[in-house]
Structures are given as C-alpha cells and as structure tokens.
Amino acid sequence: MYNSKEKICLVIPCYNEAKRLNFQKLSSCGDSCYFLFVDDCSCDGTLGLLRNNLNKNMYLLSLDKNMGKGEAVRRGMLHVKNLPVFNQIDWIGFWDADLATPLTELDNFILFKNMFYPYCEAIFGSRVVRLGSSIKRSYKRSITGRFFATLVGLVLGIVCYDSQCGAKLFRKDIVDKYFKDPFVSRWIFDIEILLRMRQKGILEYPLNEWKDIPGGSLKIFSAGWTVFLDLFKLRKKYF
Fold first, then answer.
1. Is the pLDDT of residue 159 over 90?
2. Fold classification of 8-238 (topology level)
3. pLDDT above 70 for 221
4. In the chain, where are the structural domains located?
C-alpha cells in the first residue's frame, strides 16, 4: 500500500494486456494513488476487462486507433488534468501495466526524493543491480540494455543509467511543458523526455525490486534499426 501524503496519479498504457493486468495489486495501493488506464486500441479484450474492473480510484481513456506506447503515455499524461482528482494530486507518472516495478516502490520513490533531492521535478526508476536489491532481469536483456545506454550516451550525451525503466514520476505542474508536443520516436520516447528536460531536475532512484514479466508486446531492442535511426533524428532535433 502507498502511504505517502503526496498523492500520485499513474498513467498505465495498455496494449493487449488482458493476461497481465493484476487488479488485486492495483486495488491495494491505497487512497493516495489514482490510476488512468490508456487503452491503445487493444484487440484481446483489454478494454472490456478495464471497464469491468474500474474502482473509485481508477479512470479510463480509450484511443480510437493504435498509437504506440509513447503516444499513449503522452495523451494519458495530458488527460490527467481533466480528471476530477487533478487538484488533489502532486505527481503524475507512468508505470508499466505488468507491474514489473511493484507499486510498493512508490513509497520509496518519495522517500528517496525527500532524502536526496526534495525539489526535483521528476523521479526516474532505475534497475541497478546491487547488494540488498532484487532486480530479476535476463542476462540477454541486461547486456542489451547496457549496450543501448552506452550508445545513447555516445550519440546524445545522455547520462541516465537506465532511461527505459517503465516507472517515472513528474510534478504535475511541468507535465504540460514536456508532454504537449508529440514525440519524434514511437519507441524511445523516454530519451526524448530527458532531452526536453535537458537532463535537469531529475532524480534517478535505484529500485529495490524489479522483475522481468514475460508476455509484453513492446520489443524495443528487436526494432534495432528503427531505434538507431531515431537516435539520430533526436540528435538532429535537439542539437
């Protein structure tokens, strides 16, 4: 359960997530956390499942056509201001639907922020394997992730250890500024957020727990050539 006094609304992008959504865990988060599910034109019954399981802390945005994870996240982040709870919340974030990052980490996000950087504008989860943590990631995914992070650093000067972790929070008053324009890349929009924010005001929190959940539809690294070209599109736009 999330116990902080700082209230959060999490955008959960969903594309064919019917088999991976865990409403028991989502419903146990407490009254300080709200959810906006963005259905990206799923074709496996996800939309019906969402409609049948929403509770008082959950909302739904259904897209008319498949737009990709980045656009689903962007539209969800902007849509939160239309929700009745907008004036009550302090943070808007996005979180992967499979809960690879457990919701129990939300308390740690805020605690870590209060201890080290209380005035930050954003908190990014980071899958750093260290003593005391439980980061269960496949060897192949770990190696590919480090290669990608190194490439991003060389091409764009990004110093974030783990830009692709699907657990991020933003102060609600900055969301319009950094999410109002469509992303250049369908795949690596997290990198574009870092560029838009000029890597400033961001705290990277090393997760205590993360578990690779099989069955996801988004395969960033299998779209290697597209991702590679997108890096240079981002370089052209932001440099």
1. yes
2. Spore Coat Polysaccharide Biosynthesis Protein SpsA; Chain A (3.90.550)
3. no
4. 8-238
